[in-house]
TrEMBL record:
The keyword Nucleus does not apply. Its main location: cytoplasm. GO terms for cellular component: cytoplasm. This is Probable butyrate kinase. It comes from Thermotomaculum hydrothermale. Keywords: ATP-binding, Cytoplasm, Kinase, Nucleotide-binding, Transferase. Belongs to the acetokinase family. Coiled coil: none annotated. It is found in: Cytoplasm. It catalyses: butanoate + ATP = butanoyl phosphate + ADP. The gene is buk.
Length: 357
């Protein structure tokens, strides 16, 4: 049977929606939300009716009826650490996401929206697939050197695993036969060591870890950071925004848009070039670190995310890491397709549907 799946990926300023029939996209759209409109909400959960209406408008405009859809899949949010896979949306999951028990993130609405629409469609199944809290780290990777502050696995799991599987398919291998370093370069940057289908180490994209990115600081000198926190100059929220949201390229260059930055570089802006080169340098160093995490037995390095569209940035990264392993570039992300494919495998019984407990 060919299933129809509605996939939902809520981001900070948009909700990406796609209707798939099997793996074929029938209608995919990026529903942009005015940031001023989102400002009226005090929490991610409060945005629920607003985002639901945007999805219903998308369905109505395209003549899609809820009852014709077989299953609903949302990008899962910040939950407790769990292994990768397809999870049925359940009450505990929704409670953790609603009250942001493990942190606020736009993707917390994915499961909640999928579940609501699935109920309205006549009690259809609702799933999440490879949420950002997928945790398959080996024990050594959890140590930070500060026992009360261990390293955590929070990353672009859905896209990293989707492109890793896509690459494995393309060479006629299975994901769990390969060692891959996957670098997701988007608004946030996460780089993971995938050993035979398991992400044994990765930088935490939401905690100030790893390379700086268009809107995140990445790892910074710790003692100076502590001084800044206690300087009396900044509220805790301001300091958090310096790490996630207002750090990285936007802090140095007042924009997180790499296309604009490349324009600045072409106009001769030396500061823009140095900062952009520094980001490439940090990404390359991090790729090297995860190559070592794979005992230098990496089959391929995959570069993905919006910034993988940039020939300039990718060429600077390649210069430093091309002697380590074959490099493959998958620009953009395949998150909606990954949600659809995971759900179809679950419906077909090809993979186990996991329960969030
Ligand atoms: N053709 C391009 N050339 C250069 N940079 C690009 C291009 N297309 C997108 N980008 C850059 O990619 C970055 C955004 O990447 P992406 O769309 O993956 O981020 P996101 O989805 O907002 O966040 P995340 O990937 O962390 O979830 C921006 O800096 C954007 O300017
Ligand atoms: C939420 C995990 C992915 C990211 O770093 O944004």
């Amino acid at each position: 049977m060919t299933y129809k799946i509605l996939t939902i990926n809520p981001g900070s300023t948009s909700t990406k929606v796609g209707l798939f029939e099997g793996s074929n996209p029938i209608k995919v759209e990026n529903l942009k939300h005015d940031s001023n409109e989102l400002l009226q909400f005090n929490s991610v959960y409060e945005q629920f009716p607003f985002r639901k209406k945007a999805i219903m408008d998308f369905l109505n405009t395209n003549g899609i009826e809820l009852k014709e859809i077989d299953a609903f899949a949302g990008r899962g949010g910040l939950l407790k650490p769990i292994p990768g896979g397809v999870y049925r949306v359940n009450t505990l999951m929704k409670r953790h996401l609603k009250y942001a028990k493990f942190g606020e993130h736009a993707s917390n609405l994915g499961a909640i929206l999928a579940d609501e629409l699935a109920k309205e469609a006549g009690d259809k199944p609702a799933f999440i697939v490879d949420p950002p809290v997928v945790d398959e780290m080996i024990e050594e990777a959890r140590y930070s050197g500060m026992p009360e502050n261990p390293r955590k696995s929070v990353f672009h799991a859905l896209n990293q695993k989707a492109v890793a599987r896509r690459y494995a398919d393309s060479i006629g291998k299975k994901y769990n036969e390969l060692n891959l370093v996957v670098a997701h370069l988007g608004g946030g940057i996460t780089i993971g060591a995938h050993r035979k289908g398991r992400v044994i180490d990765v930088n935490d994209g939401l905690s100030g870890d790893g390379p700086f990115s268009p809107e995140r600081s990445g790892g910074v000198p710790t003692l100076k950071l502590i001084e800044l926190c206690y300087s009396g100059k900044y509220e805790p929220e301001t300091m958090k925004r310096k790490a996630v949201g207002k750090g990285g390229l936007v802090a140095y260059l007042k924009t997180s848009d790499a296309i604009k930055i490349e324009e600045m570089i072409k106009q001769g802006d030396k500061k823009a070039e140095t900062v952009y080169r520094a980001m490439a340098y940090q990404v390359a160093k991090e790729i090297g670190a995860y190559h070592v995490a794979l005992s230098c037995e990496t089959d391929a390095i995959i570069i993905t995310g919006g910034l993988a569209h940039s020939e300039m940035l990718v060429s600077w990264i390649k210069e430093r890491v091309e002697s380590l392993a074959k490099i493959v570039v998958f620009p953009g992300e395949d998150e909606l397709l990954a949600l659809a494919e995971g759900s179809i495998k679950a419906l077909n019984g090809e993979i186990e549907i996991m329960e969030y407990e």
